[in-house]
Structures are given as C-alpha cells and as structure tokens.
Amino acid sequence: MDRKVLIASLNNIFRDFNRKKKKYSEIWLTDDDFGGLYYSGNYILNLKSAEENSTSSYRKKIEEVLSLLDEKAKEELQYISKVKIYNHTDQVAIESEGKLVYEE
Fold it and tell me: What is the pTM assigned to this prediction?
C-alpha cells in the first residue's frame, strides 16, 4: 500500500474516532526500518495522548486502538507492525508487542 493512501485512510479512521472526545493530540507514522538496517515496508503507528493518564488507562487505550484497527482498518493493519502511545510529555507510555499481523 502506498504511504499516502495509508496515511489518508488512517486519517479518516482516527478523525472519526477522535471527533467525540479528543483522545489524541497527534497521530503519525514512522518507518519500521529496524535501526536503518533495511526497509521493511511496515510502519509504526504513533499516537500522542491529549491528556495525562495512569498506566492502566494507557493499557485500555492501546487495546482500544488495536480493536479499532482490527474493526475498521484490516487492510491497513497489514502494514502496521507496532503501535506506540506517548504521554503528554512525549515519552512512550505503552507499545504493542511484536508484529500485529502475520500472514503466510
């Protein structure tokens, strides 16, 4: 999938998701290039929380994001290897473990 198409699709999904209550102040993709060793064609989905949360609240947020992607972005999910949620001070609060989607 072309990066621009992926961004546009995720933008639509998260715009609708974020419309009711602004949960994320920023959402962006970074290449999952394994430290510059090679380009995988996959991305890390990064989300910055709009508010301060507890650790358990971040766990709920990542579960919510993964469920949203599974429900509304099955095709896009093939290109997302990890999800990271940052707190309001730009520190990683929680991240998904391992590859989200595996296909043979």
Answer: 0.84
